[in-house]
Amino acid sequence: MAPPRSSEFRLLVAVFLFLFLFQVMFLPSLIAADRSNARLLATSNGTIGGRHSEEYCAMYDICGAREDGKVLNCPYGSPSVKPDDLLSQKIQSLCPTITGNVCCTERQFDTLRSQVQQAIPFLVGCPACLRNFLNLFCELTCSPHQSLFINVTAVSKVKNNLTVDGIDFFIADAFGEGLYDSCKDVKFGTMNTRALDFIGAGAHNFEEWYAFIGRRAPQNTPGSPYAIGVRSTTPDSSGMRPMNVTTFSCADTSLGCSCGDCPLSNGCTNAAPPTEHEGGSCSVKIGSLKAKCVDFALTILYVVSLSTFLGWGFIHRKRERNQTSRMRPSSNGMDGSDIHPVATQKAENHPVQIWLCWQIYFSKFGYVILSYYYQAPDASPNGRRVQLSIVQGYLAKFYRIYGTWVARNPVLVLIVSVAAVLLLCLGLIRFKVETRPEKLWVGPGSKAAEEKRFFDSHLQPFYRIEQLIIATVPDSREGKAPSILTENNIKLLFDMQKKVDGIRSNYSGAIVSLTDICLKPLGEDCATQSILQHYTSADNCRSAFKAPLEPSTALGGFSGNNYSEASAFIITYPVNNVVEKEGNETERAVAWEKAFIDLAKNELLPMAQSQSLTLSFSSESSIEEELKRESTADAITIVISYLVMFAYISLTLGDTPRLSTFYVSSKVLLGLTGVVLVMLSVLGSVGFFSAIGVKSTLIIMEVIPFLVLAVGVDNMCILVHAVKRQPLELPIEGRVSNALVEVGPSITLASLSEVLAFAVGSFIPMPACRVFSMFAALAVLLDFLLQVTAFVALIVFDFLRAEDRRVDCFPCLKISSPNTDSDKGTSLGIGGVRRPGLLARYMKEVHAPILGIWVVKIVVIAIFAAITVASIALATRVEPGLEQQIVLPRDSYLQGYFKNVSEYLRIGPPLYFVVKNYNYSSESNQTNQLCSISQCDSNSLLNEIARESLRPESSHIAKPAASWLDDFLVWVSPEAFGCCRKFTNATYCPPDDQPPCCSSGSGSCGLGGLCKDCTTCFRHADLNNDRPSTMQFKEKLPWFLSALPSADCAKGGHGAYTGSVELQGYENGVIQASSFRTYHTPLNKQRDFVDSLRAAREFSSRVSKSLKMEIFPYSVFYMFFEQYLDIWRTALINLAIAIGIIMLVLAMIVIDLLGVMAILDIQLNAVSVVNLVMSVGIAVEFCVHITHAFTVSIGDREQRVKEALGTMGASVFSGITLTKLVGVIVLCFSRTEVFVVYYFQMYLALVLLGFLHGLVFLPVVLSIFGPPSRCKLVEKQEDRPSVSLRP
């Protein structure tokens, strides 16, 4: 490997960390050199085995230098030397333990000073650690008793001069333990990690630290020019003794460290230790069985309730039998022998009676008990009347008049209704689609969205991320992925990087490359997060991006700090972001991202596969682009679903197929026009909202047509079947009028319930779901209006066509048949009414009698109650969230990317704690309330963050925060003499290894030259308790933020903190916005994201109250997950509103649907909440028609249930259940997981649950608990309003 120039290592920190990552690939000495920025040059005048006594030196003066300029000490012993006063003062300033004579020359001391200044910025935040560290090297270099613990073990000849090539350094274990204990928890703020990770190779004890320090540095790498062997035991009879200078504890009051750097520091021990949040839930243990408290309580409730019900049922049944045996059947007509429902055939010679019926209508809003009289269809003007609810009475009166009018004026109704909807469709001219994720999934009043806007406008928008993940394939036998750190894989990575660097995209005629758009914190090179950032080729090592690199951001698939086990390369290309998402800068980045994805698909993926590696990739715009593609991914599936439903509609609307009359009796044209009306209702809804400026979403165009069709088909079938049930001798207007009176009220209230359920969804804060609910509510309303207007008119046309024997689909063709009367007669029953179909006869003659058996009733109620109780228990296991993989097509390249992110990333998203209005003036104590170095408050923000990082399982904070404030205070401190410096004219003087102090083309940088007169900014006397004054803070902060980090001062703030502090308006002593960066722990599940947001907000709220400062957390994903913090509350509130006064069957359907969600692992999010709210409206359809038929029937409960199932059971099964089932099943073939999970699975469960509850459970409940017959014999009252059911 060719030796790099010294100018390529100006930021030693980056090199140290990089070489540490590759300790298994390169020479240990190379690693030691790169990682150590504190290794010193030792001197000696002694020979091997020379004199060892007090006031005697083992090495003295400098006798040569290596090829890279590192000086080498003389291996000659000599008595210690008394320094002159100036040198003595210099030595005392750095090494206060050394007094009197010394064993170093001024040149040796200057070398020592220049070397340790590289380590000082890492440790200065903890004075005790820094003092112990300096004492180690001061004793090594200048101690007057050097020969007592230093023994030269190897020499080499440089230009005919002997120089030291190796020494033994004898150090007492007590000193080593004290040194390590005082430094082991000291943080390096810029990288959110321990300082020992940089200056000690992550040592876990003092022996490992010594071993790291003692390695000889290769040419052109920082570190010791000779080997240092650290020993704790001296040779016998050598006269030597280990160095054992007194060490300072980090808890020492005179050299106090902060709580973050020293948990034992004064004041920290009294602080409450971090307590783990209770992660478990209440549980009950019975023997070996352990159950949640909720499950146990529900089980007890079920057993008690079922026992009570069985007891009541036994007593009630016994009493009922006794009453039956004592009483004879009533002669008032209530036994059902002469009782007929309103819609049944007309009976002959009925006595003139008046029936008073208290109508209790089963609706979304509870029970309406107002009454209204109307005359029974078989009554003469002086005959009987049936009293209905006032709502149903008015609806019946309206539909009687309206049905007759529509049947007589079908053309006018059809033209007017269709024209009105077409007028709404004109709004499609302003149709726009919203595809930006932040506009779809984040509400305008979102707290997280407001915090993001504040962060973006005051600090710096979070950068765009383009990422590659290259991983090895797990071994089929062992199941463990091999290490990716091989020479071939690194060369492959170089080849891939060249291709990425060569991407050129075109935007508005301009060529865009990565260097044009990438993030450049230091203003020169892209901040590419890759292990290759220190290379220009496979044969040359240098730092291209001069900044430290966190290993977990470049490598993946390892455990702990075992980077050599890494099984994945993670390459991240940060790209500049802007606040305005639609600006030219964003468009340029998007153009490059598209070229990047194309390159990854077409070239990089085959390259990785050729080396038996996997490659996953993503760009910032990938999700948005894939969501757009999703809109066309399932077009065929949706079209097939519509065609299947259309075919079923055509079949179910027609009569029983007979070959001779099929072409006349079929309803294909009617079904087709019904589907067209559904489409018009959807287009009218979209047109209306587009006209008022509401943007549509892709899901609206995909789901709402299907949803409205599924809802609309039910009413079509019910209307057509109701018309078919009317006597054929009635004219068409009479049949239509009677049919509307029969089913119109239930259709109206069912449709209004669905509209209300969808409208409730518009209160959900998520824009995509809110807009979806608004569009759906209006579409369902328009569909209902078109059904009772245009579709009724079309029914009139179709029945007239059939009666005139015209061919379906070709009404101009008329067929004559001699068997018309016979065909007609075979389909008629008694009284000219069409004979009930097979399904209707099954419902009335088989299904209803079975459900009427008392034992069956008990079993049905017990089973459905058990399902409901189990569903309540399961509902508590439904987790919030919406997996990103679900909303993407199954064949999307992002599916593999999200899987690999979860598998390989060992660090979570960046987390920023943003402080508003930080008062840095001398009069305020807020500086100490925020910082975490010496003399900061023990409960400061940064110390609290450090404590939270000690319990990452509950806090989800991975490490202490990078603090610009800590680094700034260190940067201005006198101890960091290589950092804050000034020229004689009081202007900023950079470190000695930066221009203009050091020319980039020079071979080395000495202490002379342009910056030889630079002095530190402050002395201790200039500061107030080591804190700058208001004026000093205001003057030096811009210096710090513009200072480049380098080997001489790694604390420079440029790049690391450029976007962390807002300088606008800071001159008045208040910084409006500043941030402190840390990281979340790896977040793999949706619950992890939600819990991390909740924990961060709870922590910020607690600290804000404690410090009386405004602090909030910010991470780029927060605004997308904020909705899940209160998703259960949102769901329950919306469900309560939708259900209204909770009704048993609807509540059970929704609860059971929640239980199904838990079984199928369907998460609770805005999409599922909308589905749950919609399920209330849809479930009404399964219940309202049966209930309505029950309420208008006459007889006891058993007879009325039988009559309700006979008249409406078939329509509910064929017109509601099967139509929805047919359309839903097709969705299981969708290529998009969100359709399969949230539409196929949830809707299928809803249809099956609705069917079972509506046709099994509801009839049983009505037969037991339904209201008694509300009809009684009364005298006719002429003054009451009457509504004739006759045409």
How is the secondary structure organized here?
Elements: H1 12-21, H2 28-35, E1 56-57, E2 62-65, E3 71-73, E4 78-79, H3 85-94, H4 106-116, H5 120-123, H6 127-142, E5 150-158, E6 161-170, H7 173-183, E7 187-188, E8 193-194, H8 196-199, H9 206-213, E9 227-231, E10 283-286, E11 289-292, H10 293-326, E12 354-355, E13 361-363, E14 366-368, E15 371-375, E16 385-389, H11 390-408, H12 410-425, H13 437-441, H14 447-458, E17 464-472, H15 487-501, E18 505-507, E19 510-512, H16 514-517, E20 535-537, E21 540-541, H17 551-554, E22 555-556, E23 568-575, H18 584-610, E24 613-618, H19 622-633, H20 635-653, H21 662-665, H22 668-691, H23 698-724, H24 732-760, H25 767-803, E25 806-807, E26 810-814, H26 820-826, H27 838-852, H28 854-875, H29 893-904, E27 910-919, H30 926-930, H31 941-948, H32 952-955, H33 964-972, E28 981-982, E29 988-989, E30 1015-1016, H34 1030-1042, E31 1070-1079, H35 1086-1107, E32 1110-1114, H36 1118-1121, H37 1127-1139, H38 1144-1159, H39 1166-1192, H40 1197-1226, H41 1233-1265, E33 1273-1274
Parallel strand pairs: 6-9
Antiparallel strand pairs: 1-4, 2-3, 5-6, 7-8, 10-11, 12-33, 13-14, 15-16, 17-23, 17-24, 18-19, 20-21, 22-23, 25-26, 27-31, 27-32, 28-29, 28-30
Helix pairs in contact: 1-2, 4-6, 6-7, 10-28, 11-24, 12-22, 12-25, 15-18, 20-22, 20-23, 20-40, 22-23, 22-25, 23-24, 23-25, 23-40, 24-25, 24-37, 24-39, 27-40, 28-38, 28-41, 37-39, 38-39, 38-41, 39-40, 39-41, 40-41
